[in-house]
Structures are given as structure tokens and as C-alpha cells.
Amino acid sequence: MERSRGTVLLAIAVLLMVVGLSVRASTETKKIRMGISALSAGYTVAYIAKDTGLFAKNDLDVELILIDSGPTVHALIAGGLSVAGVGASRIVASGLEGSGLRILAATNNRQPYQLIVPANITSPSQLKGKKVGVGAFGGLDDTSMRFGLSQLGLDPNKDVTIVVAGGKATRFSALTSGAVSAIVIDPPYTLDAKKLGLNFLFDFIKSGPKTVYGTLSAKDTYVKQNPEIIRGLLKAMIAATQFYKTNKAESIKIMAKYMRIDLPAKAEEMEETYDAFVKTASCKPYVDPEGVAGLLEQIAVRNPKAAKADPRRFLDMSFITKLDESGYIDGVCK
């Protein structure tokens, strides 16, 4: 009898130990490598989720890794990065070649860009025959430049010469030095442009198309294997978006910290940046296929495959949809 009782107690002890291990495993913090392709305000939601502990609240230890957009895409495909914030045009172009990369969310549905020219250019026709600068062919600023020029009545393939002019700071210097005659740029450079008396020919916030900006993307196989991680990331970023929209002063501090901008010396620039980016931020970060269709139209100039591609092929909105239908988003974004 005693032996039987001992066996039962041993079995209960083992069971409790197994349950304890299971609970501990289910709440174990998961390490995530998240790439960001620039120190841009476009990734402020990720900065906030990291800095305020929202990632940690969802049992995620997220390492933000700064890496150029081209290598970011390769790292996602190879598994060196779990997820990434990178220009949607890069994800779509890669997806056309069968990479399996998918856009899971986009915090902004408009580009906070301006097409800027020197003070002596006052009309689009004056750009004919001139050089215009982009960061890299195929990048978001490249597709934006082409769209903006088209809206201004210019043919980007015939009326101007598009050249690679480097990162944002380098492009801005190229414009002010006369090396190029137009760039597409976002805040805080727009404030510098105003102070220098440069002209603004096209405002993407007011007149641009629906687009995909501030993305979270991953490879389809990673998403399938790690649904809880993806769900946690999105929950954190949705909560961070609400924080962003309702806590201006603290959000500016976090932006400046991660963008490596000195406060209070650059307070005016940071306020300009916040005001522009927060206008287009959405707590329901669905990606509209119409925005992807616009990217495909621009990509089709270089890759004919894009002309017939279904925009939905590059998206996975299932996680956002489930979070929305569960009431989570409405509960957070009041």
C-alpha cells in the first residue's frame, strides 16, 4: 500500500514538474532580430515598442539592427533576420522573383515626402533635361520620385535623368550644391529646405496615392513557423502606434534617441518630423492592395512581371484581421 502511494506521489510530482516546465516555456522571452533600413522616423513605432517595453510585455526581446535595404531583403530570405522594416517596393520586387517575403503590416498609408527643387526652379517644366537624385534604383524614394514627376506632367524616363545620389543627407547636399535639381525627401530635411528657401513642387501627404510605408515584413516560412511571435510583434506595434498618436513629447524624445538626433538643439526639426509622420500613422495597419498596385506599376517599368501580378500575393493580412476581429485593436486604440 505504501509503495503504491509512493508511486502515485511520484507520478504527481513528475506531472507538476512537466506542467511547470510547460508554463515556463510558454512565457519564455523570445529573441527577435528586426532589421531597419534607415534611422528614419518611418520606424518610430518600432522605436516606441522597444523603448517603452511593449515588445517585452509580449515576451519578445527585440534587437533592432540597422542595415541597408538591399542586404535587409537578403538577410530576411536567408534567415539572418526574423522580421524587418524596409521599403515595400523592395519586398514586392523580391516577391516577384519568388522570395516568399510578405508584408504583414504598414503603420503609414501615405508617404511623408516632399519633392524639393532649388529656389530658381518654380515650375515642373524647368526640370526637363536635368538630373534628379534618388537613394537607390528600385527603392521607395525612387518609385516616389517617378510617381511625383508623372503627376507633375513629366516623363521620368525621358524628361529627366535619374541618378543615385546616396542617403538622405547626401542627397540633400547634392541638391543644395547643384549636383542634382530635385530630390524626394522627408522631415526633418523639409524644415531645412524651408529655411533655405527651396521650392516644394509635390506634397505626397496631400496629393500622393495610397501606399505602403513603415512596413513589417517577413519570409512566409518564418511566419508559418512562428505565429505567436508575429502576433506579439503586431500587438506591440499597434499599442505603440496609439502611444505615438497620444504622447507627442515622449514620442519625440524616443524618435530623437533612436535617430541619434540631439535634443534640445534639434527640437524644432523633431517637432516638424513628428507632425508630418503622425498624420499618416494608423492604429489599424492594414495594407491596402491599391497601394501595392501603385508600387507594381512603377516596378513594371523595369520588370515586366510586375504588370500582371496580383497585389494581394505580397501581403499577409491574416494576423491583423484576427487582432481586429478579436476586438484587440479597438480596445487599445480608443
The CATH architecture of the largest domain can be given as 3-Layer(aba) Sandwich
Highest CATH level, the class of the largest domain: Alpha Beta
The general outline is globular
Q: What is the SS-derived class?
A: alpha/beta
CATH topology of the largest domain: D-Maltodextrin-Binding Protein, domain 2
Mean pLDDT: 89
Which percent range fits the helix content?
A: 40-55%
- Strand content bin: 15-25%
Question: Segments where pLDDT lies below 50 for 5+ residues?
Answer: 7-26
Question: Using only CA atoms, what is the Rg?
Answer: 23 Å
Based on the model shown, name its key terms.
334 residues, alpha/beta, D-Maltodextrin-Binding Protein, domain 2, three-stranded parallel beta sheet, three-stranded antiparallel beta sheet, 49% helix, 16% strand
